[in-house]
């Protein structure tokens, strides 16, 4: 799933494949999907190398909730 980009408005999914000439963004058709994995039915060939999509992370998030669901006062 870390390699799949989604266009939710269009209902399409894409991956970026590394090629000898650079990168190629390809539409893929997905089958069974879970929280960690997705079945790719078409759009990739055996041996294709896909790039992972960068994920934004925060070092600190201001939240009224503490770890474990408690509320700060």
Polypeptide structure, described:
The chain is an all-beta fold and about 70 residues long. Helices cover about 0% and strands about 40% of the residues. The chain has no helices and 5 strands. It has strands spanning about 5, 10-20, 20-35, 40, 50. Strands 1, 2, 3, 4 and 5 form a 5-stranded antiparallel sheet that branches. A hairpin with a 2-residue loop joins strand 2 and strand 3 (about 20-35). The chain is globular. The N and C termini lie far apart (about 40 Å). The model has no long low-confidence stretch (mean pLDDT about 85).
Report on the biggest sheet.
5 strands, antiparallel
Which secondary-structure class do the elements indicate?
mainly beta
Mean pLDDT: 84
Shape summary: globular
User: How far is it from the N-terminal to the C-terminal residue, by CA?
Assistant: 38 Å
**Tally of DSSP helical segments:** 0
Radius of gyration: 17 Å
Please indicate the percent range of residues in DSSP E strands (runs of 2 or more): 35-45%
Q: What sequence of helices (H) and strands (E) makes up the elements?
A: EEEEE
Overall helicity = under 10%
Low-confidence segments: none
């Amino acid at each position: 799933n870390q390699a799949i980009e989604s266009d939710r408005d269009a209902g399409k999914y894409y991956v970026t494949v590394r090629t000898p000439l650079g990168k190629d963004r390809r539409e893929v058709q997905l089958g069974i999907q879970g929280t960690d994995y997705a079945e790719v039915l078409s759009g990739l060939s055996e041996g294709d190398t896909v790039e992972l999509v960068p994920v934004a992370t925060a070092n600190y998030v201001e939240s009224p909730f503490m770890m474990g669901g408690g509320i700060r006062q």
